[in-house]
């Protein structure tokens, strides 16, 4: 069902959102995910629904841990927070809701049953629920209780506005990308992104690889990488990818240092000395990317090109954020780090689509079905 087909007034709606925001010393470091969840919440409240808003936060591993409480999120959104997500106290609080009210349930992952998709936990979550709405794109690649178990137990289900838009944009990217289509992948590990590299390589006209991932590829090419982060056990895989006859662009210069602190001197060079760690792509590599994007009709970017949390190693990532923003084609950026860079560079409004889901967007682009989406689309 579509959201617009639901009767909402006076009904208890379980809204699964992705409010898994980055925290720094207990404060919200970036509220993009909260802001992205507001339109569906407002839509439901304006139509008189009684909303049970649910999310996970971090990895509390099935235990009630105040470090992972949704309290900062409740305060930020100025909404009440329940003491838990299931149980008699929560049910009593739900009973007290009136039309248009919202109650934020406490972290779903305080219960191991969430990630295990435990039937009893899913049944407890569904207990007072009339309608289920999934707007948690960033969690929809996980077959967790609130993503697949609850919709299986509720008769009326729908996608939220954010999930609908994410699917529309990412399916356009997956199924009908206009050429030239360029993918930029960064981040720490080749092992995490191997499948996505292989699948996007077949779809894109050119693949640009940066971040620590690039050093496994440079190692495979026989270049010296000093003490840079790499996965030597994946060198053979990297060689196979490089030899597949696709256009793969690697950094041609680097910003290096002797440690990760940002305090040791940073040197820019085309080769990496033995005692150095390459921590960012250099200015010539950024220029190479700007040139490659000049006539692109489609661009997808996921993952930072360097240790962007620590200046001056953020320049490559910010330069790429600006280059993607300049591109006149259809541009999509996914993943928390890349989104943070786009915001830091002040170019968020120049990107066609900012995807709130890192892992979920990669799985969708790889051609995998997302369990959360399947649960809604196959709902009887
Ligand atoms: P991922 O979670 O795989 O997307 O990786 C993101 C992390 O990779 C970020 O914390 C970056 O700081 C880190 N990163 C990117 N490039 C480098 C690099 N050259 N050396 C060390 N860490 C890096």
Description:
- The model has no long low-confidence stretch (mean pLDDT 95).
- α9 crosses α10.
- It is built from 15 helices and 16 strands.
- It is an alpha/beta fold and 380 residues long.
- It has a 6-stranded parallel β-sheet with strand order 10-9-8-14-15-16, sandwiched between helices. A 5-stranded parallel β-sheet has the order 5-4-1-6-7, sandwiched between helices.
- The structure holds adenosine monophosphate.
- Adenosine monophosphate (AMP) binds next to β13.
- The site of adenosine monophosphate has 16 residues, from β13.
List the helices and strands and how they pair.
Layout lengths: L11 E5 L6 E2 L2 E2 L3 H15 L3 E5 L16 H7 L10 H8 L6 E3 L7 H5 L2 H8 L4 E4 L10 H9 L2 E4 L1 H15 L5 E5 L4 H14 L2 E4 L3 H8 L14 H8 L5 E2 L4 E4 L9 E3 L7 E5 L1 H11 L4 E5 L12 H12 L3 E5 L1 H9 L8 E3 L3 H8 L4 H7 L3
Parallel strand pairs: 1-4, 1-6, 4-5, 6-7, 8-9, 8-14, 9-10, 14-15, 15-16
Antiparallel strand pairs: 2-3, 11-12, 11-13
Helix pairs in contact: 5-6, 6-15, 7-14, 8-14, 9-10, 11-12, 12-13
The site of adenosine monophosphate (AMP) has 16 residues, from strand 13.
Q: Taking strands numbered 1, 2, ... along the chain, how are they ordered across the largest sheet?
A: 10-9-8-14-15-16
Report the span from N to C terminus: 10 Å
Sketch the major β-sheet.
Answer: 6 strands, parallel
Q: What overall form do the CA principal axes indicate?
A: elongated
Number of helices: 15
Q: Tell me the structural class.
A: alpha/beta
Number of strands: 16
pLDDT < 50 runs, ≥5 residues: none
The radius of gyration over CA amounts to: 22 Å
Bound molecules: adenosine monophosphate
Count of domains: 2
Q: CATH superfamily name of the largest domain?
A: Phosphoglycerate kinase, N-terminal domain
CATH class type of the largest domain: Alpha Beta
Mean pLDDT score:
95
CATH architecture of the largest domain: 3-Layer(aba) Sandwich
Oligomer type: single chain
Helix content: 25-40%
The CATH topology of the largest domain is given as: Rossmann fold
Strand content range: 15-25%
